[in-house]
Structure formats: structure tokens, C-alpha cells
């Protein structure tokens, strides 16, 4: 008799005992994206009634909207997108909620102390997990995502480098994610440092992937959910829009 254990698991996950939360921004020219990129381009190639189908051609940078970054993005010797294994698309999900702090301080930086405080309340961050920084930044209009001041300096939250190092070296997490377009806070990425993306470079240098511009983390609990982030098997790819969703026990 065939083993249907996995089929039964899928059937169970689609019952009222679980909810499925889309963590992805809708992809369009209005989608929030890194300031250095042009909006999504759309060209209609075929349409009815002249043709039997409707087809569009899209043009966009790899790191557009909700997306994955793979090691090759910041490391010339890192793995490309096609080398990422399918099991690296599914993780236990840990959500670190700092939305209230970010509301008061747009330059908020998530620290090791924040992670230790989270563990004191929720338990140890599991090995191989996806740790997401919830800031509720996804709720901002795309045109104000970088939150520039009068001097043109962006102000948005991010990870402290030591916090990412702690997650990798002390907890051996699988990956990290956040709602902003950068891993590092705005005042770091806009600085005159030789390398203004220390957090992003570190996590990718550890042969880990990461995810940016997540949405709806406020609909997911601190613990207990599973996250799935799927993306194309792109040859030599450094990153690409991803469809991320969480499966949450009710």
C-alpha cells in the first residue's frame, strides 16, 4: 500500500486548524523596491481577440519587491541561485516584533540584547530557523519607504551586525528576513563607509540566503509557524522576486 503520510499532512494543513498568510508584496511598477532600481517594466506581447492568449514581457532587477538574496549577490565566490537547494526554501519561522520601537525610532537597530530578551520570553531560537525582523515597515507607501530627511539621508530600521553574527554563530539559524529593502539600517547604508552593507555582506558570506521586503509579519505569531519562500532556479542568479507565505496554527 502506498505511503500517503505526506498527502495526509497537506490535507491537514488545509483545514481550519491552520491559516496561510501571504508574506509577499504584490508585484507591479508600484511595488516597494531599492532606490537604485527602476520600477517593474511591463510590455504586452500578445492579446485577444487578435491572438488566442494574453502574454506580457516583464523587466526588473533581480532584487525587486519581496525577494531572495543568495551568496553570489555580495560574494564573488558564493553560490548562485540555481545552486540553492529546495530544502532551503522551508523553515520554522521566528518573528522578532520590534514594531512599537520602530514607530518611536525610525533608525531602530535590532540588537543581540533584543534577541536575548525574545528568548527569555519565548524560548531558545531553534537551529535552522528563519528569523524575521518585524517592523511593520511594509505598511508604508512605496514612495516613502526610504524615509528621507531634509538632507537626503534615509531613515529606516535594520539589523545590527553583531545580532546577525550571534544568530549565525550562537544559534546556527538558517536564514534571516526583514520588511525593509536593506538588511542594514538607513544611516549605515548611506554612510561614507568603504562597505556600507556590513550585515548583508556578513550573512551572505556565511553561505546563507536572506529575504527582503517581506509583508504581513504582523499576522504571524512569534513562534510555531512555518515559512515557505519559493523562487526560480535561475542560472548565475544573485536574487529574484520570491513568493513567501507562512502556515500558522490557529
TrEMBL record:
It comes from the Bacteria. GO terms for molecular function: arylformamidase activity. InterPro entries: KFase/CYL, KFase_sf. Its EC number is 3.5.1.9. Pfam families: Cyclase. One of its GO terms (biological process) is L-tryptophan catabolic process to kynurenine. Keywords: Hydrolase. This is Kynurenine formamidase. It comes from Anaerotignum neopropionicum. The gene is kynB_2.
